[in-house]
Amino acid sequence: MQQTEQSPGANSAMAYTFHHPPQGFAHAQYRDPTSAVGRKQYANIMHDRRVFRGNTYAAIPMSSHAREEEEREVREALRRKKEMQHRAAVIKRRKELEAAQKRLATPPPVLGRQHIEVQTEQFLEELKDEVEVVQQETQTDPLLDRPITPPYVPVKSGRDAESQINEGDLFHFDDAVDPILDVMVGKTLEQAMLEVLQEEELELLRQQQLEFEQRRKEELLEAQRLEAREKRLFEEKERRNDLENRVFARLQDEGWFRDRVVHEVEFDFFPWLMDQVAMELEKKQRARNLVDDLIRQVVSAQLEG
After folding, report:
1. What is the dihedral sign for C-alpha 262, 268, 271, 275?
2. Which of 12, 109, 206, 272 could be disulfide-bonded to 113 (CB atoms 3.0-4.6 Å)?
3. Residues in the chain with pLDDT < 50?
4. How far apart (Å, rounded) are the C-alpha atoms in residues 232 and 222?
């Protein structure tokens, strides 16, 4: 329970909250140092049960199980270390091999020469086929056994008290269950209404789907009918065009249709041309006759003279 108090004697209305009512600071009671109660009691710590017995430099004896467990952990650590070293060496060799493959190879030497390895480092070192290997080992001290830490048990404080709670003192079934029942009934009705609305919506969707399918089938039949009609009209037009061409060709062959230019040339131009040619020939013939008559008269006149 939290309470709110205002500081007395202050003009400001500053409020504060607390879990427990405020209490005054408890001062330690005065004890006479010369009395038996106030006199400090001195004792030898070696008689205290909390002090460890024995010297501090001797190793604590270990059980065989603890020693085997320690040796097993040491062997496992060495094995993991060797595996890590081996894995690192394999990765290093793989990287060196990949780097060597990526580098461009040196062209082969010409005839009469050979390639040799030459150190280009600033500080030369002796190259040996055998690598000097030195083995060293070390051993860590075994873990020392120590007594098991006792569980922490807090010091009991305060006084025990008890109380009797009769049936119905803290919980009244009717008053506590009515709101829960109201919520459950309301939720049940709401869920039922939602399910009914969902079923009606699904039924409406199915009806709309059926109407859409029916309309789609009708539109498909109408499209097929229009396609058939268009195809029939196209075929009729093609047949009509072909028929019209055949009829006109036949009439043209039979002479029912004549070209106007040809008709004018045959029936207008050619007769006029023939008449003009005949007139021109007649003029030339008349001129020849006149010339012949003149020549004949001249010859006759010369013969008579």
Report:
1. negative
2. 109
3. 1-14
4. 15
Other Cβ atoms within 10 Å of 66 Cβ, number: 14
Say what the pLDDT of residue 4 is: 43
Residue 70 lies inside a defined structural domain of this protein: yes
How far is it, in rounded angstroms, from Cα 264 to Cα 270? 9
| Whole-number pLDDT of residue 2 | 42
Asked whether the beta carbons of 105 and 26 are under 8 A apart, the reply is no
Q: Amino acid identity, residue 163?
A: S
pTM: 0.24
Residue 230: inside a domain: yes
In a domain? residue 36: no
CB-count burial class (<10 Å; 0-12, 13-18, 19+) for 139? exposed
106 domain residue, yes or no: no
Q: 246: number of CA atoms within 13 Å, CB side?
A: 6
Q: What residues pair up with 15 in beta bridges, in sequence order?
A: 6
Identify the pLDDT of residue 5. Answer: 42
Distance CA 134, CA 186 (A): 86
Query: Are both 232 and 274 inside the same structural domain?
Result: no
The three-state secondary structure class of 113 is coil
Q: What angle do CA 37, 40, 41 make, to 5 degrees?
A: 100
Q: How far is CA 216 from CA 175, 185, 212, 284, 286, in A?
A: 62, 46, 6, 93, 97
Residue-number span of the structural domain to which 87 is assigned: 64-101
Q: CA-based Rg of the chain, rounded to a whole angstrom?
A: 67
DSSP of 51-99: SPPS-SSSPPP--HHHHHHHHHHHHHHHHHHHHHHHHHHHHHHHHHHHH
Q: pLDDT tens, 201-229?
A: 999 999 999 999 999 999 999 999 999 99
Structurally, the chain folds into a number of domains equal to 3
